[in-house]
Amino acid sequence: MSCMSLAVKAQNKISDDNKSLLWEVSGNGISKPSYIMGTFHMICSKDFEIKPKVTKALENSDNLILEINYTDSKEMAAMQKMLSSDQKISDKLSPKEAKELDAILSEYGTTLQNVNSYSPQALYSLISTKAIPCPQTEVKMYEIELLKKALQNKKHIGALEKVDDQSHAIGGAYTLKDAISQLKMGNEYAILAQKMVESFKKEDLQTLDRLVKDKRFMNKDQEKIMLTDRNKSWAEKMPEIMKNQSSFFAVGSAHLLGDNGLINLLRTKGYTVNPVKNQ
């Protein structure tokens, strides 16, 4: 077989292997397999589905481990605190910049006066209102729906990081100026989000990974702060969590692929990480 043919076969194998959002982690001394699922944090209910293989894996696991623990009241209080700022947004801008931001916010159905006490992180989160083409009452969060199932089955709930860690990452990656720049691209985000949903529903992680890392929305520095650094931190914590109990990790899909993705980081630690196919 020619080198070219071998290369094509290898590429096809990688592509086929990535057609899953759910991955089984085994080997390296753990007694029972654990699982990693790539989620879509917020999605319209018409596009939402928890597949039988996910339900089965969660049922077979002792723990549900999320990015942050939504059952911890202290963490939820920290999240509320993260969304507000002691300093008004308008105080950080020139009158001209404030006027421009007010015009941008009108496209989001609000005004600078309404969001003046928001933190840059909260301001950035407004983008989701453009990116999700359905009313808030029809929005589903995968983490919350998985959490409901886990609590019904009396699973232990854990987390890979604290809200403060997440806040620090977002704050480091997206300054106020960055957030405003991203808000200007609301319509482009809407187009991107639709493509991401389509890839997510097909379990096409390769395409989803490419879309998430589009340089228009995430530069290399932001990728390092939001993905790489956090992935490396999580990959250090996961072995101890998996050591004695089977765990189901649910994290944003963007954290799975690439040299610094969780799949590769766990493989380099000696674990076998394989896709779980639809049943």
UniProtKB/TrEMBL annotation:
UniProt keywords, alphabetically: Glycoprotein, Hydrolase, Membrane, Metal-binding, Metalloprotease, Protease, Signal, Transmembrane, Transmembrane helix
Cofactors demanded by this protein: Mn(2+); Co(2+)
Cytoplasm recorded as keyword: no
GO biological process: negative regulation of Wnt signaling pathway; proteolysis
Membrane topology, from the record: Single-pass type I membrane protein
Pfam family, one: TraB_PrgY_gumN
Source organism, top-level taxon: Bacteria
Molecular-function GO terms, alphabetical: metal ion binding; metalloendopeptidase activity
Gene Ontology CC entries for this record: membrane
Location of this chain's protein in the cell: Membrane
Chief subcellular location: membrane
CDD domains reported in the protein's UniProt record: Tiki
Stretches of the chain forming a coiled coil according to its record: none
UniProt xrefs under InterPro entries: TIKI1/2-like, TraB/PrgY/GumN_fam
Name by which UniProt lists this protein: Polysaccharide biosynthesis protein GumN
Organism of derivation: Chryseobacterium soli
